[in-house]
Amino acid sequence: GAVVSQHPSRVICKSGTSVKIECRSLDFQATTMFWYRQFPKQSLMLMATSNEGSKATYEQGVEKDKFLINHASLTLSTLTVTSAHPEDSSFYICSARGGETPGPADTQYFGPGTRLTVL
Amino acid sequence: EDQVTQSPEALRLQEGESSSLNCSYTVSGLRGLFWYRQDPGKGPEFLFTLYSAGEEKEKERLKATLTKKESFLHITAPKPEDSATYLCAVQAAGNKLTFGGGTRVLVKP
CB–CB of A43 and B100 under 8 A? Predict the structure, then answer.
């Protein structure tokens, strides 16, 4: 139980293009989803928090016009990196929380991550 | 501002050599402390949640404990498959998790 998927697992794109990453909770309804970014050998940095049906809350320093987040349903959130540049290359990981999951309350369950490379 | 510090940054163990990882935290109003395991190129895998000082949780060779200032993850008689990065995170008021830098554990056969 409490499985979160991400698609795609890897994406390579040209500079200036946009890339969409999907995050799905497969066996529970996620009232809240989170997007993180992780650089090599570093820990996770929260980018934004989204609740179903409302606008995402972005962390300080994260450009909301560049990283568009949509949480359209209780099982799906998307992150779109607009006009991607090489400095956006990173490992993006989503997590989901809420509903009836086997773990303790407030536990975030993470997806497998998406490796973005911008050429 | 919530802060989480993990030590050591890296740990090399021989198979069967027990050890402990430390997670020190500063947070206003702890709602929960979480331990995750992360393998290279993958997302974190949930291990434990601890809510109050004195609480302990166990899973196979892992045992997590919590005091008012820190948490320990004890690895008993580790095996090579326990090699991973172990992440500690705290949650105060609200939804956000604040992560430590992680401890990279390598268990050699």
Answer: yes
Residue in chain B lying closest to A33 (CA): B95
DSSP reduced 3-state for A119: coil
Instruction: Name the residue among A37, A117, A107, A110 with its Cα closest to residue A79.
Output: A37
Inform me whether the C-beta atom of residue B31 falls under 8 Å from chain A C-beta atoms: yes
- Calculate the CA dihedral of residues A3, B88, A49, A14 and round it to 10 degrees: -80
For A89, the token pair is: 């290359």
Cα angle: B3, vertex B103, B75; to 5 degrees: 115
Most confident of A92-101, B7-16, B92-101: B7-16
| A–B interface: beta-carbon pairs under 8 A | 54
pLDDT tens digits, A21-39: 999 999 888 889 999 999 9
Whether residue B44 lies within 8 A of chain A, CB to CB, comes out as yes
Strands A90-97 and A114-118, by their bridges, are antiparallel
pLDDT for A52 equals 82
